[in-house]
């Protein structure tokens, strides 16, 4: 599931590097979660692409 | 640009001047409106964009945008008063009875302004029913948030759908109805997705801040704190203890670095960002399916990307 995948990613430099290098292995993650995870990882150091609505 | 922020601000002040005949009520209201004009005002833009997206022609759309922003201002004031934070805001510096009275007066003023933006009595009825339905939903959600007992993901999403998403639905649907169209379920659905996405992004920000609005210091339960508290003892045991009532806020305030380290190690912000992004992606999918003016759909995306609508 998504939570487990994220805990694994942040606890392993190797897994994070593989994911950032375009070789993601996300078992048990839905297609929507997979897409969002890649969106956010690729945007990690950029403006997120959608604004805050509330102040 | 669909509307100009300054024009909306002018209309907000005009409505106050017209209906608040008691000078103290007007004076304080105008100072609160002025404060609002220095902030993001995206809700009125959403109303205007949806009006144009559905090819509206005859309504007073700037008046409607001002009405929506008047409600959001009232909602912000009430939220700050209830949470007891944001000390720099003028409504937090004003005596509580005054701030409370102005906020409730602005709620009524916003309803009046929205009704006046449509000439057709039948449309006014539709607008009133829609607005009150969404605001009552939001009131229920706000109460659940204040109770701070959203301890499961299901209850969290239920609370956010009510409290936050309903306001986005209200803003977007006001534009749809004013364009002479009926309630649009796709718009309602994507506005709700947008609201959920935005709330989670705010939760990410409020988890990391270290002031009176800090979710952690206030022991607030959100989707992110749920994730954080599920971590291993060696990482978040002390955070779990704090949430269970151990220690004072003063004790916790001195542990900023330890807390930020736990956030980093747990991946909680990445988790929140991904869940927020999922809802934003769903919003985009639904928007793509919507049969509406493509130019204004693009303007909506541009606005949400941090720009103005044109």
Automatic annotation (TrEMBL), chain B:
GO biological process: isoprenoid biosynthetic process
MF annotations from Gene Ontology: metal ion binding; prenyltransferase activity
Cofactor(s) this protein requires: Mg(2+)
Key words, A-Z: Magnesium, Metal-binding, Transferase
InterPro entries, per the entry: ComQ (IPR033965), Isoprenoid_synthase_dom_sf (IPR008949), Polyprenyl_synt (IPR000092)
Family: Belongs to the FPP/GGPP synthase family.
Protein name per Swiss-Prot or TrEMBL: Polyprenyl synthetase
């Amino acid at each position: 599931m998504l939570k487990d995948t994220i805990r694994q990613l942040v606890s392993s430099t190797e897994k994070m590097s593989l994911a950032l290098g375009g070789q993601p292995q996300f078992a048990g993650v839905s297609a929507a979660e997979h897409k969002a995870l890649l969106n956010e990882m690729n945007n990690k150091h950029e403006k997120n692409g959608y604004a805050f609505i509330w102040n | 640009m669909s509307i100009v922020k300054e024009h909306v601000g002018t209309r907000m002040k005009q409505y106050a001047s017209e209906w608040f005949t008691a000078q103290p009520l007007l004076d304080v209201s105008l100072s609160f409106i002025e404060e609002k004009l220095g902030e993001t005002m995206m809700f009125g833009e959403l109303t205007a964009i949806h009006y144009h997206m559905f090819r509206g022609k005859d309504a007073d759309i700037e008046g409607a945008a001002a009405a929506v922003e008047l409600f959001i201002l009232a909602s912000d004031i009430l939220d700050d008063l209830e949470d007891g934070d944001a000390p720099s805001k003028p409504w937090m510096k004003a005596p509580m009875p005054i701030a409370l009275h102005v906020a409730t007066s602005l709620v009524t003023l916003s309803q009046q302004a929205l009704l006046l933006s449509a000439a057709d009595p039948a449309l006014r009825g539709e607008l009133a029913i829609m607005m009150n339905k969404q605001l009552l939903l939001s009131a229920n959600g706000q109460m659940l948030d204040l109770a701070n007992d959203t301890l499961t993901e299901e209850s969290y999403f239920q609370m956010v759908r009510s409290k936050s998403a309903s306001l986005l639905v209200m803003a977007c649907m006001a534009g749809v109805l004013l364009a002479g169209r009926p309630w649009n379920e796709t718009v309602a659905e994507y506005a709700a997705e947008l609201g959920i996405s935005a709330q989670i992004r705010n939760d990410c920000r409020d988890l990391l801040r270290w002031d009176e609005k800090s979710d952690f210091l206030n022991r607030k339960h959100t989707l992110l704190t749920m994730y954080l508290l599920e971590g291993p003892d060696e990482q978040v045991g002390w955070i779990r203890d704090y949430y269970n009532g151990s220690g004072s806020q003063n004790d916790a305030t001195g542990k900023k670095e330890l807390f930020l380290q736990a956030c980093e190690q747990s991946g909680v912000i990445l988790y929140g960002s991904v869940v927020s992004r999922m809802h934003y992606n769903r919003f985009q999918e639904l928007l793509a399916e919507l049969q509406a003016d493509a130019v204004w759909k693009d303007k909506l995306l541009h606005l949400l990307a941090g720009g103005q609508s044109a």
